[in-house]
Write a structure and sequence with these properties.
It comes from Wansuia hejianensis. 67% of the residues lie in helices and 2% in strands. The chain is mainly α. It is globular, with a radius of gyration of 20 Å.
């Protein structure tokens, strides 16, 4: 895989996005009524707050901005590969989970507690985005991936304003998913679990495999000698 290490394969991003959009659109048509209901006991304690529609939509600009920077401005091929493969692995696993485990929500309010510009915006969101294929939350997963990429980027490490902005926006986006009733707490937790696994594979393979080798060595030492 030397070709991946020597230069950025920029074509991977648009090609994968075409694949993802087509696959997700097919899933949206396939998963309509017969699905597993995702819920958490904590969901009922989280109030609906329409103001979170702002960071929810900022997610699209956030992920796009991070991708544009790593594709065209950040010179590190390794950091670029870590970002796109973290995104690609997680989003592909999300598609697979949605296919074998059709899922959806029943959390959206029957009517909004207030009538204002933001609730109107949320209404538009509800009409265009079905409450299905939510587990794990891609809004949460991609936000964490982007935040990690920015945090670990050598050229951005000392840009304190960018680091703080990235972290705060990621937190607000994650909160927006539950305060808009777009996702259950279960979706958020599952996204973090997926983030942990993919992070270990992409960013810390030495730690991951050294732990596995240690367990194997310990098991071999405990085996009885004939």
């Amino acid at each position: 895989m030397k070709w991946l290490k020597t230069r950025k394969q920029r074509w991977l991003v648009p090609v994968y996005m075409i694949f993802y959009v087509i696959s997700f659109s097919l899933l949206e048509r396939h998963v309509t009524a017969d699905f597993h209901l995702i819920t958490s006991p904590l969901d009922k304690y989280i109030p609906f707050c329409e103001l979170f529609v702002v960071p929810y939509y900022l997610w699209f600009f956030y992920i796009t901005a991070v991708l544009v920077y790593f594709i065209f401005y950040n010179e590190s091929v390794r950091e670029y590969n870590q970002l796109i493969f973290s995104l690609g692995i997680g989003m592909t696993l999300f598609l697979f989970i949605s296919l074998v485990y059709p899922n959806g929500l029943n959390l959206r309010p029957a009517e909004f507690p207030r009538d204002n510009f933001f609730t109107g915006w949320v209404g538009s969101l509800y009409r265009t985005d079905t409450p299905t294929n939510v587990f794990p939350s891609i809004h949460v997963y991609n936000s964490v991936v982007a935040c990690i990429a920015v945090r670990r980027c050598e050229s951005l490490r000392k840009r304190r304003g960018i680091q703080i902005s990235s972290f705060v926006l990621s937190v607000l986006i994650i909160l927006s998913t539950v305060f808009l009733k777009q996702h259950s707490v279960s979706d958020v937790i599952s996204a973090f679990v997926l983030n942990f696994v993919v992070y270990a594979v992409i960013y810390r393979p030495d730690w991951l495999f050294s732990r596995s080798k240690k367990k194997i060595a310990d098991a071999e030492r405990e085996m009885p000698v004939n």
